[in-house]
Amino acid sequence: MLGRKKIEELEVCVKLDEPLTSDSCCKLILELVKYLLYQKQQIPVSYEYLLRLGASSVGVNDRSLATARATLSCLENISEHLNTELCCESSAVKEIFISMGATILAPKFCLRVSLPPEILSGQCHFKQQHSPRKPLLNLMRSITESVDFQEAMALPLMPTNTFFLLQKRDCNKVSEFFVPKPRYAITNATAGSRLHLKLSHKSHEMWNCNCKNTVSVYRDRDASYSELAPSQNTAGHRSTEKIFEGGQDSIYQWYQSRDIIKGFKFSR
């Protein structure tokens, strides 16, 4: 029996103008997932239209409506739990892996995203100072200007399963949503495209933000939040950077989301 053909991985470097926070990083990854699902024809319409469709049953049969709502629910769950992982101090998320195919071992398309080691804490830095808009524009500009990337996007793919994984080092290996895959390794034998996005910051000068001078909104339910946030501001990226620097001696493991996004077309 012939083995699968080894396909060379295409690398696309993405230079970010704005430092990523845990919130903006989560936003960036989820927007990328939505883009991939639409471009690879795993959802019949854009995500924004799918949202409107999920809120209304006009002109859509019950089966298509149920599938659309299930897809929206999967994306919402992934977004929520990914944000939790990125915010967790004991967790160092190194890479994100998105695989499309019948099984995770036989991908027809796969995309690996290497995260920058310096990700600011979303609890210490504020959206007003670190908007996800610039990083998202940097990402979309890089992938749309890459001819090879766009050629890979143009290749048709029948509706199939989309698996979401993350590679991290975590002292607490128990997760309600991400299941450990201790023996999993990304294979270079695939039937389709293999892409690799490498995210990095342009310079360290942009770390000089004034979040610590911003007055936090007082929260009745968590009075300690406003007291801790300013003092932790400068340590927001250093602790994460230390974790990544020690990555050679650390054990990074792949975790797969419990939810699998199932591609679909509208039924008539």
Automatic annotation (TrEMBL):
Top-level taxon: Eukaryota
CC per GO annotation: nucleus
Signal peptide: none
Name this polypeptide is given: MAD2L1-binding protein
Protein species of origin: Neodiprion lecontei (Redheaded pine sawfly)
Listed GO biological process terms: regulation of exit from mitosis
